[in-house]
Amino acid sequence: NGSEVCIAIRGTEAWFPDLDDLSADFLLGVGIVPAQYGVLVNFYNEMKTTGKISASDNVTIAGHSLGGFLSQLLMADHAGEFDAMYTYNAPGIGGIGMQQLESKFGITPENISAANMYNILGDGVSNIASLGTMLGDIVEVQIENDFLPTGDHTIKKLTDSLAVYDTLWQLDNGLDIAAFNGVFKQSSNAEDISLE
Q1: What single string gives the DSSP state of each residue in 33-67?
Q2: Which of the ends of the chain has fewer CB neighbours closer than 10 A, N or C?
Q3: To 5 degrees, how large is the angle CA 27–CA 38–CA 158?
Q4: 95-118 pLDDT, tens per residue?
């Protein structure tokens, strides 16, 4: 039927930590693909089997942090099945993790098409975002930086910034991300209020 379908995968539950999420974060840190990936693959296959996703659908996958990492794996492992991928402050793949992908799934940097893969990164300090090898293009956006690095990693900071970017783009769609970033950086001498 040619529908637009988006599979969105959340990041680690920060306020009420989920032990599976925390163990997945640890596994990512040591380069091991977490169990959530198998759950995601089963969910995706079930969506196809039950007809909730058809071959004529335009399917986008998106995820924040841990969800972005899982999105990259699914996009690479199911090449050609997705129209686009967007990650938000997600770690990349690499090191031991890339070796595991190659041995387990046959995925190498050389056989991954980076077309229509976008990694949205806040310009603040994040101890997670962009670690490893990012699959696809990196798009850095201006955020209101926090005094704590964990604050710069949250999806809230990015969604607030992207809402402002969208509003400005509606006013002048001739500007690109670099131009918007320049406007934001010049708009205030205090980075934590540059988007107000």
Answers
A1: --THHHHHHHHHHHHHHTTSS-TTSEEEEEEETHH
A2: N
A3: 65
A4: 555 566 666 666 666 666 677 888
pLDDT at 154 exceeding the cut of 90: no
**Helix (H) / strand (E) containing 99:** helix 96-105
In this structure, what token pair is assigned to residue 44? 């995706």
Helix, strand and coil percent figures for the chain, each rounded to 5: 45, 15, 40
How far is it, in rounded angstroms, from Cα 25 to Cα 66? 7
Distance CA 8, CA 68 (A): 9
Q: Which two tokens stand for residue 154?
A: 């949250």
Give the list of residues 6+ apart from residue 125 with CB closer than 8 angstroms, or none. 145, 149, 152
pLDDT tens across 61-99, in order?
Answer: 999 988 998 898 888 888 889 999 999 988 877 655 556
